[in-house]
Amino acid sequence: MFRVGIGYDIHRLVAGRKLILGGLYIPFKKGLYAHSDGDVLLHALCDALLGAVGLGDIGIHFPNTDTRYKNISSLKLLEAVKSKISKAGYTVSNVDSVLIADRPKIGPYRSTIIRNISVVLKIKPAQVNVKATTSEGVGPVGSKAIASYAVALLERKR
Ligand code: MG
């Protein structure tokens, strides 16, 4: 049996923070404001995976009031989510995602981001897709904030 999940997240760009996307540090003049490392792509992905198994959302499992998660690498959160879906009896068939950012350009980092995600989820890079787009200067998403959508398809282990 297959199950699908959707995830969405957005974080504000602020000075004085490191920009981390897909578990990778990307040199940029601003970073994403958050309790964790602000990795909006991995947060959307965590929510898609949790959604597919009916386990709520990232805020339920990793509350931003909990000091254990202060500045935590979101790769660790993704790892914890992967273990929850394994325990629930599911494997990941594929994940797809969209990053909405006017700058920086994600292209040069895409293959490393895909590798990071595939390693944590224990799937092949071909099962992970990361797309990037700008918002064409329309509204604050992409310029004042970076947003991400993700979907995940899971299959029940035999
Ligand atoms: Mg978030």
Helix count, DSSP H or I runs of 4 or more residues: 4
Structure ligands: magnesium ion
User: How much strand content do the residues show?
Assistant: 25-35%
Q: Please tell me the total number of domains.
A: 1
Strand/helix succession:
EEEEHHHEHEE
- Counting DSSP E segments of at least 2 residues, the number of strands comes to 7
Output mean pLDDT.
96
Unreliable residue runs:
none
Under CATH, the topology can be stated as 60s Ribosomal Protein L30, Chain: A
| Shape, per Cα inertia axes | globular
**Lateral strand order in the biggest sheet:** 4-1-7-5-6
| CATH level 1 class label | Alpha Beta
Helix content bin: 25-40%
CATH architecture: 2-Layer Sandwich
Question: What would a concise description of this structure say?
Answer:
The chain is 27% helix and 32% strand.
Structure in words:
The structure is a single chain. This protein is α+β, with helices and mostly antiparallel strands. It has one domain (2-156): 60s Ribosomal Protein L30, Chain: A (2-Layer Sandwich), CATH 3.30.1330. Helices cover 27% and strands 32% of the residues. It has 4 helices and 7 strands. The strands form 2 sheets. The chain has a 5-stranded mixed sheet with strand order 4-1-7-5-6. A hairpin with a 2-residue loop joins β2 and β3 (24-25). α1 packs parallel to α3 (74-87) and α3 (74-87) runs parallel beside α4. The longest helix is centred in the middle third of the chain and has 14 residues, at 74-87. It is globular. The N and C termini lie close together (9 Å). The structure holds magnesium ion (MG). Magnesium ion (MG) binds next to β1 and α1.
